[in-house]
Specification:
about 210 residues, five-stranded mixed β-barrel, about 35% strand, single chain, 2 domains, about 15% helix
Amino acid sequence: MKHILLYLSVYLLSALSLQAQTLEKWTLTDGRSFEGQVKSVTPGMVTFARASGPDAPLEISKLSEASQKRLIEVLGLTPPVAPIAAISPPAQPAPALTAAPMNTVARNPGAIDATDIAIIDSKFGLRSTVIGKISKIATLGSTGHKKINFENSEFYLFINKRVLDANPEWKPEAMADKRIQVEGEIAKYQDQLQIQISAPTQISIVDP
């Protein structure tokens, strides 16, 4: 199922209109889940309609294997007989950090304050910029993942250990008590809003 994106790119050359469905639970590769119904699919992307809020576009590769299989069932497609792994390009590693650990920049005027949960929630599934002061940086048990909390906010930043391993010179602890802005897709895990980054370049320290 790792090559579902290529498979759909071959079969879906334009957006597909789908029959009405009930809300279903969908799971992402990192274990997070959400409820929605498939509204349309284009090569590499699927758009979900939610019970409330705007439609949420999502890269198909971010769905878990089980959810990708379910997506095929919803579309009424049959997986290709011949394996396509041989013609698929190898996965690219996360970009390594080669410059200074963190840049200091002016505030993005369109950034959402981390304390404004209602606005952040309205951007679920969309790429946005969130700004706030870091209150806590925690390592999640033996996994090595980092969870970064913001002052007076339930919104948080999640950094997978794979990203940390790919950027050994980057130390998130250097951001402690700093005001930062982070750009990425608004997501949820266990009903908490978050952004999960794929590279340190998504984070900047903001000028006081």
